[in-house]
Each structure stands twice: as structure tokens, then as C-alpha cells.
Specification:
The chain is an alpha+beta fold and about 230 residues long. It is built from 7 helices and 10 strands. The chain has 2 domains: about 45 residues, Alpha-Beta Plaits (2-Layer Sandwich); about 160 residues, 3-Layer(aba) Sandwich (Aminopeptidase). Functions in the N-end rule pathway of protein degradation where it conjugates Leu, Phe and, less efficiently, Met from aminoacyl-tRNAs to the N-termini of proteins containing an N-terminal arginine or lysine.
Amino acid sequence: MRNVPIAPDPTPWAFPHHSTWDPDDDLVALGADLDSGTLLTAYGLGLFPMPVTLEGDEQLGWFSPVERGVLPLDGLRVSRSLRRSARDFEIRIDTAFDEVVARCGSPERADGWITPAFTRAYGRLHRLGWAHSVEAWRDGELAGGLYGVSIGGLFAGESMFHRDRDASKVALLGLVDVLRDSDAEHRVLDVQWQTPHLASLGVVRRPRAEYLEQLGQCLDLPLPLAFRVDD
């Protein structure tokens, strides 16, 4: 077992320094690409990509929310009903990464943004050992899950889905369990934006500057044991 994933080729792109970011705008930059080296550089700077349409033209946008959604590992709200429901599921790690991403990117989802280019990009990151899925299985079927990027002490959640009730929440509970290790106090579980649904689970808002400070302190931590990659 190796403790670190495979390093991709470095990105040829230079992202703007955070001191130049608009303090009132979540969108920081446009352009670049979805190569693995670009993605890892961006996450390390506190950025993540999403497609944006400006004046009718779809472009690749790089975001750092002014108010970042973060789930404190000791702040996950687990109701009694969710704890009971969790007993019906089996948590697995990285056994169906491509299927999880495909379900998250289903065209049936009204707010879908995961294009084929994003699917390929995160598939490459997964094969290098940087992107991971946490899956909730029931009766031998994938019932829900989430995926994201793990760099040191950062887990940057990208998207989640459920087929069965509570399945995505159970996957989130499984992720928090994975991150609760000896370095849990310094790990960061980033969910991009706080939504009402995520707020009900304990997600809070962190000012951009505070998030970036936490990020700088966590990137050199060891990966959680569950995300270390087999040779």
C-alpha cells in the first residue's frame, strides 16, 4: 500500500492570487482546463470548477465562495431516525466510483452541471488516487453515495445522490466516520456552499479568509486510512 496518490503533470496555468479576488464574488477566474494537475492546484488554492454561461457562451469557471460551506466533523446532526436507517445500509469506499459520478450527473437532475468532460476529469483523478466515492449499499444495490477530492486533510465534496431515502445522508455519515481519526481536529470537510438541506445536517458558513487559513494548515496532513491507495 502506498500512502500517497500518483502526482500528475503540473498545470501550465497560473491562477490569480487570492489577494486579487473580488471580495463580493464567488467566481474567481475563467478558463484553463480540467487536467488533473490543474484540478489539484486549484483545490490547493481553495478553488473548484463549475461550468458557467456568460453572454450565451459556456465557459469553465473557478469558484471560491465568499461564504464557504464546511461541515465540522463534530457538528454532523444525526437524528434518531437516520441512525436507525443507517443500520439498513452497508458503507463501501471506491467500489463504484464511476457509477456514483454518473448518478450524480444524471440528466434527470434539474440542477445538473456534471458534463461528460467533468465525468472524465474526475475519473482520471480517481485512477490516480485523488478522487474517492463513499457509497451506501442495500440488498446488493447502490442506493446512494457521494464523491469528492481528498488532498491531505482536505476532503472537497463535489456531489451526492440517493436512490433510496436517507441513502445520501448515510453516505455522508460514512464519510465523516472515515475522516474522524487522530488528525480529525485539523481536517476540513468542504461542501462548497451551505444549502438549507446541508444546513439541517450541520453545515456552517466560513468566511473565505478563514477557510483559506484552515486549508493552508491541513493540506500536509496524511490521507485518511480508507483513502490510501493500493499498489
